[in-house]
Amino acid sequence: MSCLSQSIAQSDSVLQELVEKIRDAPSLALLILAALQLGRAVAVKVAEEVLNERGQVPTKWPGCPGCGQKLESKGLASREMLTLIGKVKWWRRRGGCPAGCEIGQVIPLDEALGVQPYQRTSLEVKWLGSALAVFVSFETAAVLLRLLTGVKVGPKSLWLWVQEAGQQAIAQLQAQLKALAQDSLPAEEMRAAEIEALPLLIGADGVLVPFRPDGGKSKGKTVWREVKVGILARLSTQVNKTDQRITRLKQRRLVAVLGDIDALKPRLWLEAIRQGLLHSPQVVWLADGGRGFWRLFDERFAQYATGILDFYHAAQNLWKGAKSWLDGRTQQAHNWFTSARRCLRQGQANDVLADLQAALELEDLPVSARETLTNLYNYLDKHRDHMDYAKFKELGLPIGSGMVESACKWLIQQRFKGVGMRWSEDGFNHLLHLRLAWVNGRFDDLFTLVAPPT
Hints:
Largest sheet: 5 strands, mixed
Mean pLDDT: 89
Number of strands: 7
Distance between the termini: 42 Å
């Protein structure tokens, strides 16, 4: 420590004060925080020294894009940038046209560093700030960023960074969807061999989100709009201590859109191809009884996937039918429901349909009950091929859409349905696509932190 202290003292008195602060720290926590402060200060010094060395290296100037004459040095100009280690200042060479062409300043070091004109915040700060905003409110993200790095930015800055990154994610998706519409299939995502051999699960559900009225105005009644969410994952199974088979999701990927089924369809199809739909050994489609989702299944996935109707959604509809049919006879309704649910679970859907058909033939059946039972019969009959639950369980396939509902809760409810939250359409879409990029492992692609190969 003494050698390091002497070296620091010779270079900067401020740094020496920080060393003394570490020495005098009364607790480990304060010592570590003081050491972190010293580390940031030293990092700033090192970064500035390196940047100043690069900025003063003799430059081979190119020709002027206006007149063709060789550019000449116009001296050094300063630059300041807010970074994760604090504000960094340095000097670098600038060039201009000797003939006075209005081409602006040419600064080779800025171009080499990937720094844009008038940029005041370094990209890694935007990367971390946007990552925090994926999980918590902009106000909380600003506080966490300051606590973690010492960098002070306001919630508005974080909001702007999210809009920028989210817009880039949307633009990338639109380009991919356009290519897909022209029959250009996307490249499949890389998967380990053990993942490749697992069944592919595809499911979809909807969730409501609160929006501001009248195009985003803050005042007025909340407008609730549905977001369609799709999930794609590989299914693995484990046996727990009680010899029960537990399903686990591997390589989970999500898609979502503020729109209808037709807007979800190309997005889900795009991601399905990425996840190996076209040659997966087994594909499973799992959803509740929503007509739109099963229309999507019929149009896109029926030839590749085994359709499974969410058992618990089917059972819920059975209970509605029992209450309507056996109104006022609670025990009888409960007994029939229990029996019908057991039959359904054992893959005996035909027996349940036969009971419903017999009930519909009763002459004294009330009109409302007849309508409810007719709807229930048609619902179960339509999904007759999707309710072989005994076989599905034997194959280790899930029969409940809880995994899809869980994806909706994580993706949408945890971030977009906090107390008092209401969204504009643009603000929602930009943050949604940033969250999608995170969960799908594509977040870093929106921030060019690594220099492209030369």
